[in-house]
């Protein structure tokens, strides 16, 4: 049985774990917005101004800190003026990226920002660089924030007199690909041009996120940090965050494996591919550390998660997939990476909220039942880390490997909350062996307040509309506390959270 002996320095709180690391992403893609979050005011599904109440409640429960919208690739094909004014008058466009379906723009700026208010989270709007203009983006910012002038009047006429504060703005998405097929050098110039007009409003500073790299493209990060970060004459930084996109794709892009079933090799392939995130964050962080040693700029992993073959019988353009406890462990492993790099990683977004890729929820077509996925449970177990201070975790943890790629067999993070409670989150990435974990908490006599476990007797089990709680958390039994030492055994393929008063 793998054994991990970990020391947690409870008396050495480190950097704050930004709550925005636990963000989500909702694109106009498949059934994420329409027939997902949005059912419309006239739907028999209980809703508040068109947004599904049960989904809003589920997201509030995991304390969603921010929601990215409207894309994704959709963002660089989206013109925000299409989504304001009377709904019946809004244009109907083809969603060219995702299935060629008609986008009727029922959800636009007002609706989305209402959702964020219902969720109590910050909106993160993705601006259009690929097919948009600096003027269009400038006016979107003004439409949201102005207290006077034509755009403020137009916003009021459309039902919202008070300005919003939209702090988080993406300036382009994947501009190396669907966002315009640009080179890093070209994008860095474009970025400066767009950012010049993406202005702060008084008392409304913006957090601009420049489009970052595709996976391991460190050249992109180098160039955008060098050429896009400040103007040619120097001056203040022109962005506050630089993004990174990386998906865990077992198999290849052309031949993706299914979400379930899988064997042990399939399990390990996901762990090994997921752990690549650690090397990517380290690599991009190294470039940023060199060019921005004060870490003023955040690394923003605003798209991550598993990407499998679509569920049989569903539209291939909709990216609907199921989930198992394998995805829960992947989520825990990835969040542990972000927490371990929280000096630089200060914002991240799992793709995508509902019915698309590694969603936290799935809904039946036509506004039917809702099921929470294993990943939703992980975000619940990790919620206590939001805004807490990271505690150092050191020690011996065994290592696993798949096709020459190593990854930790046991991964752990710990934090100290504002209420003085310590949260330790652990995952066992081995599909076959339980893991024996001992923790030595220095500087604190721990009193166990709660221990929760997410595991599944069959690793390939999915939560379905008929068995919604097949994979759910339960108490973790058998945790022993003796002085400063804690011991527990995790079953194969599991995530756990231990809370100490
Ligand atoms: O999340 C699905 C797609 O993946 C996004 O639209 C795009 O940014 C990425 O390639």
Care to describe what's here?
The chain is built from 9 helices and 27 strands. By secondary structure, the chain is an alpha/beta fold. The structure holds alpha-L-arabinofuranose (AHR).
Give me a quick take on this structure:
By secondary structure, the chain is α/β, with parallel strands linked by helices.
In order across it, which strands form the biggest sheet?
A: 2-5-8-9-10-11-12-13
Kindly state the percentage of residues in helix.
Answer: 10-25%
Largest sheet: 8 strands, parallel, barrel
Beta-strand residue percentage: 25-35%
Hetero groups in this structure are: alpha-L-arabinofuranose
Structural class: alpha/beta
Q: How many beta-strand elements?
A: 27
Highlighted features:
single chain; 501 residues; alpha/beta; 8-stranded parallel β-barrel; 6-stranded antiparallel sheet; 24% helix; 27% strand; globular; binds alpha-L-arabinofuranose
Write the layout of secondary structure elements.
Layout: E1 3-9, E2 23-25, E3 47-48, E4 51-52, H1 53-61, E5 66-69, E6 93-94, E7 102-103, H2 109-119, E8 122-127, H3 134-145, H4 150-157, E9 168-171, H5 184-197, E10 207-214, H6 218-228, E11 241-248, H7 264-291, E12 298-306, H8 325-340, E13 345-351, E14 361-363, E15 370-372, H9 374-382, E16 389-391, E17 393-396, E18 399-402, E19 405-408, E20 410-416, E21 422-428, E22 435-442, E23 448-454, E24 473-475, E25 480-482, E26 485-490, E27 494-500
Parallel strand pairs: 1-22, 2-5, 2-13, 5-8, 8-9, 9-10, 10-11, 11-12, 12-13
Antiparallel strand pairs: 1-17, 3-4, 6-7, 14-15, 16-20, 18-19, 20-21, 21-27, 22-26, 23-24, 23-27, 25-26
Helix pairs in contact: 3-4, 3-5, 5-6, 6-7, 7-8, 8-9
Bound molecules: alpha-L-arabinofuranose.
Alpha-L-arabinofuranose binds next to loops.
């Amino acid at each position: 049985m793998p054994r991990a002996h970990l020391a947690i320095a409870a008396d050495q709180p480190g950097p704050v774990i930004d709550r925005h690391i636990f963000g989500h992403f909702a694109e106009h893609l498949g059934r994420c917005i329409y027939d997902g979050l949005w059912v419309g005011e006239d739907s028999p599904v209980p809703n508040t101004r068109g947004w599904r109440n049960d989904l809003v409640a589920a997201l509030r429960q995991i304390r969603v800190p921010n929601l990215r919208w409207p894309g994704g690739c959709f963002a660089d094909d989206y013109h925000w003026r299409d989504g304001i004014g009377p709904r019946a008058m809004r244009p109907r466009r083809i969603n060219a990226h995702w299935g060629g379906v008609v986008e009727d723009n029922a959800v636009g700026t007002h609706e989305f920002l209402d959702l964020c208010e219902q969720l109590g989270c910050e909106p993160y709007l993705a601006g259009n660089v690929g097919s948009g203009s600096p003027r269009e983006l400038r006016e979107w910012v003004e439409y949201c924030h102005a207290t006077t002038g034509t755009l403020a009047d137009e916003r009021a006429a459309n039902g919202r007199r008070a300005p919003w504060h939209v702090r988080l703005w993406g300036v382009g998405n994947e501009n190396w690909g669907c966002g315009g097929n640009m080179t890093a050098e070209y994008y860095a110039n474009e970025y400066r041009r767009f950012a010049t007009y993406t202005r702060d409003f008084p008392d409304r500073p913006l957090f601009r996120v420049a489009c970052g790299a595709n996976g391991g493209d460190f050249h992109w990060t180098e160039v955008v940090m060098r050429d896009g970060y400040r103007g040619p004459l120097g001056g203040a930084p022109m962005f506050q965050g630089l993004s990174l996109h990386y998906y865990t794709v077992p198999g290849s892009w052309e031949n993706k494996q299914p979400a379930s079933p899988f064997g042990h090799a399939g399990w390990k392939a996901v762990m090994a591919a997921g752990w690549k995130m650690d090397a990517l964050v380290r690599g991009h962080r190294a470039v940023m550390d060199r060019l921005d040693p004060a870490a003023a700029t955040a690394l923003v992993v605003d798209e991550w998660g598993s990407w499998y073959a679509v569920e049989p019988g569903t539209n291939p353009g909709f990216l609907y997939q199921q989930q198992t406890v394998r995805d829960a462990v992947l989520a825990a492993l990835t969040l542990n990476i972000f927490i371990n790099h929280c000096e630089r990683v200060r914002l991240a977004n799992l793709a995508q909220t509902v019915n698309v890729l590694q969603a936290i929820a799935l809904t039946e077509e036509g506004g039917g039942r809702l099921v929470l996925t294993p990943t939703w449970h992980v975000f619940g177990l990790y919620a206590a880390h939001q805004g807490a201070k990271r505690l150092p975790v050191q020690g011996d943890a065994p290592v696993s490997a798949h096709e020459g790629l190593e990854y930790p067999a046991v991964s752990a993070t710990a934090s100290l909350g504002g209420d003085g409670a310590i949260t330790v989150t652990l995952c066992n990435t081995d599909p076959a062996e339980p893991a024996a974990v001992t923790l030595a908490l220095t500087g604190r006599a721990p009193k166990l307040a709660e221990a929760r476990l997410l595991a599944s007797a069959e690793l390939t089990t999915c939560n379905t509309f008929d068995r919604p709680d097949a994979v759910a958390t339960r108490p973790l039994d058998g945790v022993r506390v003796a002085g400063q030492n804690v011991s527990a055994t995790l079953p194969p393929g599991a995530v756990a959270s231990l809370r100490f008063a």
